[in-house]
Amino acid sequence: xxxxxxxxxxxxxxxxxxxxxxxxxxxxxxxxxxxxxxxxxxxxxxxxxxxxxxxxxxxxxxxxxxxxxxxxxxxxxxxxxxxxxxxxxxxxxxxxxxxxxxxxxxxxxxxxxxxxxxxxxxxxxxxxxxxxxxxxxxxxxxxxxxxxxxxxxxxxxxxxxxxxxxxxxxxxxxxxxxxxxxxxxxxxxxxxxxxxxxxxxxxxxxxxxxxxxxxxxxxxxxxxxxxxxxxxxxxxxxxxxxxxxxxxxxxxxxxxxxxxxxxxxxxxxxxxxxxxx
Length: 277
What we know:
By secondary structure, the protein is an alpha/beta fold. The protein has 9 helices and 8 strands. Helix content is 41%, strand content 18%.
């Protein structure tokens, strides 16, 4: 399985003491059995909006994989203001799956806010998130988790993206826009399968990206703090039911507003590094 590792050089003149001590801390606290994964404590965050047709299958997939791998922890499903039966289905599943927790937004706030709410609520040393539309399988966390021995953050990259031509093109446009506007190049930045050490979260927690640029802001904060990450190919499957929302005009328009905010984030991070150097 090809593995693409993106090395980011530690720049001691720009990386502040917090980022360096944070990396040491995440490595020091990493469970020694992580490579084997048996006994690992993990939270899987599942953001969902109107996923009544997919959410039960996704939750059960995560629960079955965690049981098979003897991974303790929790599944946090974040219902981002769904108007279908997503919330009712999750309530029923909570009666059957003790590890399932639920966070509910009264109103739809966007994909990024849903993921952020789930990670904020996580109680384990390692946190992962995965789209709840059935286009990923929980077993493929097996490809990501071992790399936390070396990196505090590991991101999936869809080997063959099983999306429409329009969504594929939007992904390429987003990557190019990130490069031009932010100097950030990440292939498949919005792949919905990532894992991290929980201690890393305060340094990379997005504040401006609530939809399309949520992942962009995480990678921007990783880069500007001089923190390395791994990128690993993962399978991607066609959506079985429901409709994606990421290509809506309202989402795309909001993306440009978020981009302006991320340029300010980059400037403030660089100014903070300069003051500390």
